[in-house]
Amino acid sequence: MDTILVVNAGSSSVKFQVFSVEGEGTLRRQIKGQMDGIGSRPRLRASGAGGDSLADRAYPIEAVPDVPAAMRVAGDWLRDELRIQPIAVGHRVVHGGPDYARPVLIDHGVVARLERFVSLAPLHQPHNLAPIRSILANFPALPQVACFDTAFHRTHSAVADHYAIPHHLHAEGVRRYGFHGLSYEYIAKTLLQIAPEIAKRRVIVAHLGSGASMCALRDGQSIESTMGFTALDGLPMGTRPGQLDPGVVLYLISEKGMSASNVQNFLYRDCGLRGLSGVSNDMRELEASQESKAKLAIDYFVYRIGLSSGMLAAALQGLDAFVFTAGIGENSANIRARVAEQLGWLGVAVDAAENARHSRLISRLNSTIPVYVVPTDEELMIAQHTLSLLMNSQSPNPRHERVS
Ligand code: ADP
Q: Cα of 282 to ligand 1 centre, how many Å?
């Protein structure tokens, strides 16, 4: 059985999935797993397609001190115990910088280019690249594909790609990239199947998970996003503040004496729903809480989604559909109903029963704007890209496309 391995490596965990390649290039998910607690309490957990547990084992810290070791242990387990030898590996890579508008087959030159973007995403890019480098060293003949969170947004116009700062900073990479691109690409493709007429028009997609952003799609292409240079901008998130006056950062430095790394930790870990509520970064806990600050955090989240919808509708010069996705968007009928209320002025009206059932189409028949709930699948998107690049690379003219 041909299989594709999908890898999503972070600072303390490596998540992986295995897809089998079936007739006519159809992909079927076989295994979902992760090695977490890297460098602290390493643990490998994996389950099969039906949710059955395939592994749950702890390792001594010396056995899994870092991401390459975690990749090695997970790879050995797949190969030795499950006899899985993937024909290719697809990686989630947060940053393709200004260069990459689509996934790319990896070689040493690509790795060197991706290293240049470490400074643009220092918390993520090095961890994404670590397993790529170790597979390249240990299995040089195994094709690897890098799939970027930024690539889908490279269709933005020049004005959407800029900040009002001196041009040399834009030239060196300080741009409004946008993230969650694999999720938006998956939604755009899925929309084309479930509502082809709508997919060609003006759509706002709200990816509401631990990280949250929104994207404006026109004819299936991204024209604007709430995120920018980093994944800190835009909507409030589990632990990130979203849009913040840069003056606040100056205040933290000058009045609170915070160092750059203190500010970084603060912005990535202590803000957002967690900081505002003082209760939790988890929407389920906030919804269950009686604390007034938990209520404020939810109000703020909903309010900012409403504000951003206005901004994205302006970028699109109108709106033809709205889509909810990711953990909160797919599962919280309450948040969807509250957001829909905020969008009432645009003609959005949600059907309470369909919303409670998490139906695919949750708007009322008389809603000017149809509202969809579409579960995202970034891993499947990566597996599809990996398979199609693999097939292209076996044709005479491999497509290593770059822009600019
Ligand atoms: P990520 O992939 O970025 O870690 P997810 O897309 O899994 O995030 O989303 C995680 C978020 O989804 C958490 O805030 C969690 O509370 C929220 N979530 C999951 N299920 C529900 C639910 N039933 N009701 C409300 N929120 C939910």
A: 7
